[in-house]
Structure formats: structure tokens, C-alpha cells
Design goal:
Elements lengths: L1 H5 L16 H8 L3 H4 L12 H12 L6 E4 L6 H21 E5 L6 H12 L17 E6 L6 H13 L4 E7 L7 H4 L3 E4 L5 H14 L3 E2 L1 H11 L3 H14 L4 E2 L1 H11 L1 H19 L4 H19 L4 H17 L1
Parallel strand pairs: 1-4, 1-5, 2-3, 3-4, 6-7
Helix pairs in contact: 4-5, 6-7, 9-10, 10-11, 10-12, 11-12, 13-14, 14-15
Length: 328
């Protein structure tokens, strides 16, 4: 029955459609999300992270690389930077053999560290670059969203980093460096990625509009930059959604606001309220102890909102602390 549904007469054969030649191949290329389509392919394409790029370029020239820890807000180029560095290190031929990328938010248990990570780290390094450039004698394991790993998994990873230091380098990527245990952070070179400036985002969005032959207005691009808040990935996603929403492929302010309202809605509104309250609390006539207690609660609420907590309950909790401190 399975062979009949797949359109095959014998179990050893495969349908010709799987090769994706001709028109079907073109459709697959068009369906690639713009976030992946315009992801930086080399170190020069990474924008607004000059310090990180400069340090990585020097280490790549020496064909040596320490264990890395990238942290900062989402959409600032953390994953793109290490992938671009790996491509320059190994070239297109050895890239797939030398790089293991895992999303730690999906695979974050100790069993993954013991099986996938440890097995890949123990593999011997073989092969040379065909272009004659020097190839480093180590592999790279990328753990995206490493702050979602359990403490037991992080402790097991520490031991693996020690034992396989000759043949493997690790790159941990996270949004909150405080969630990484100290034994791991002490073994890594830490790099903080900054939120992208508005001008940098605008230039990248305009470049994508030109390549995709999109019509746009200055107000529409400014709205994309505003709602993204330094997150270029979010801005590109909104741009592609706005292009599909309008049949004439024109990026207008109203289309961006409609898409941003549907996607972020309550969570975005709650974050904006926190930012406004933070500015108001600073100007209030409260002592330092009261202000510190309120701002600490704001940070906790902001983190809970990022993790998907209920907006109404979090705002009530924060307002109760503000009222308590203001009446003391």
C-alpha cells in the first residue's frame, strides 16, 4: 500500500519527481523565506557587529578558534555570523562534514549531549580543501538557544568540551547569558551582539526591496524599522508578509501596522507599556531602593513575557509592586 501511494512499483526504486528538476526546482527556490535567502554568506555581509567580525577574522587567518559564546537580542546576526565563519574556514566541500548545528530549545536534554554531541565530537578530522587554503584540524558544534538547555545537559557539555578540545570547538548561542552556567562561560570567549541601528536595518530592507522589485514608501520602511526594535529577522519577516498581503507588491505603512498588530499584538503592547513605565519611574520622586525594586520587577515581567506568560497577569503583578513601592 505504501509503494502504491508513493507511486512506485518496486520497493527499491524512487519516483523521478524527488529529484526536483525543471519547473519544480524553480518553485522550490522561490518558496525560500527571505530570512534564509538573504542570510549573510560571508563575514563581510555581517553588519553592525564590527568588533565580533574583526576578532573572528583574525582568528580565522590563524586557522585557530576558541570556544565561543554569542549572546544578545534575537535577530542581530549571532547564528549567521558563526555559519559564515564556518564557511570561510572549511569551504563548501568540507562544511557539511565539519559543522554540526543543533537547536538546543528542541534538543536540550542530557541524552542529546551524551549521544549526538559526544559522538560527533569524537569523530576524527579528515579531508583537505581543494582550493589550497589551510583547513583547521577541528570541527565546530553550534548549539543554538543554549540558554534553554537544562543544567544537567550543560554540566555534561562541560566535560565534553574538556575531553574533545583537540578536535572540536563549540559555539554556544543564547539570548540570556545569565542562564549559562559559570563553568561553561569561563571556557568560552564571550561576544555580545548589539541591536541593529535603524539606519542599518533601513539599508538592508531597501536592498531586499530592490532585489525583489518591490514598491515601497518611506513611511512603510520606517514602520518596519520601528516595529522590529533592532531585530532584523523580524523586519525581514514583516517585509515578506507585507509583500504577499498586497497584490501590487507595495510596502505601505498601513500594511506593516496591520501585519505587526496581528503577529505581536498583546505581547508587543505589553512590552511597550513596560518601556514607557520604565521611563516614567526614572523621573518619579522615589528613592533608589524603590526604583531598584520596581525596575527589577520590570525585568522579571519582561522575561516572563518573552517566555510566553499571560500578559494580563504579568501586568497586574508589576502594577502591584509599583503601587506597593509608591505608597511606602
Amino acid at each position: 500500500m505504501q509503494a502504491f501511494l508513493k507511486g512506485t512499483s518496486t520497493p527499491g526504486t524512487r519516483p523521478l519527481k524527488e529529484k526536483g528538476t525543471g519547473t519544480s526546482g524553480e518553485k522550490k527556490q522561490k518558496s525560500v523565506p527571505w530570512v534564509e535567502k538573504y542570510r549573510p554568506k560571508c563575514m563581510e555581509d555581517v553588519v553592525f557587529q564590527e568588533e565580533v567580525v574583526a576578532v573572528l577574522k583574525k582568528t580565522i587567518e590563524g586557522a585557530d578558534l576558541p570556544n565561543l559564546l554569542f549572546y544578545g537580542p534575537p535577530g542581530t546576526g549571532k547564528t549567521s555570523t558563526i555559519l559564515a565563519a564556518a564557511r570561510e574556514l572549511y569551504g563548501p566541500e568540507l562544511y557539511r562534514q565539519r559543522v554540526l548545528e543543533l537547536n538546543a530549545s528542541d534538543e536540550r536534554g542530557i541524552q542529546v549531549v551524551r549521544e549526538k554531541v559526544k559522538r560527533f565530537a569524537q569523530l576524527t578530522v579528515a579531508g583537505h580543501r581543494t582550493d589550497g587554503k589551510p583547513c583547521p584540524p577541528f570541527k565546530i558544534i553550534i548549539l543554538d538557544e543554549a540558554d534553554s538547555m537544562t543544567n544537567a545537559a550543560q554540566a555534561a557539555l562541560r566535560r565534553t568540551m574538556e575531553k574533545e578540545s583537540r578536535t572540536t570547538r563549540f559555539c554556544l548561542i543564547c539570548n540570556y547569558v545569565s542562564r549559562i552556567i559559570e563553568p561553561l562561560t569561563s571556557r568560552c570567549s564571550k561576544f555580545r551582539f548589539k541591536p541593529l541601528a535603524n539606519q542599518v536595518q533601513e539599508e538592508r530592507l531597501l536592498d531586499i526591496c530592490d532585489k525583489e522589485n518591490l514598491k515601497y514608501s518611506k513611511e512603510g520602511i520606517a514602520a518596519l524599522v520601528k516595529v522590529s526594535e533592532g531585530d532584523l529577522r523580524k523586519a525581514i519577516t514583516f517585509l515578506q508578509s507585507a509583500a504577499r498581503l498586497n497584490t501590487d507588491n507595495e510596502i505601505t505603512e498601513s500594511a506593516v501596522i496591520e501585519i505587526a498588530g496581528n503577529m505581536v499584538d498583546e505581547g508587543y503592547a505589553a512590552t511597550q507599556i513596560i518601556n514607557q513605565l520604565h521611563e516614567a519611574i526614572i523621573e518619579e520622586e522615589l528613592n533608589d531602593k524603590q526604583k531598584s525594586a520596581i525596575t527589577e520587577k520590570m525585568a522579571v515581567v519582561d522575561k516572563c513575557l518573552v517566555d510566553g506568560a499571560d500578559e494580563y497577569l504579568q501586568m497586574l503583578s508589576m502594577c502591584s509592586v509599583i503601587m506597593q513601592q509608591a505608597t511606602e
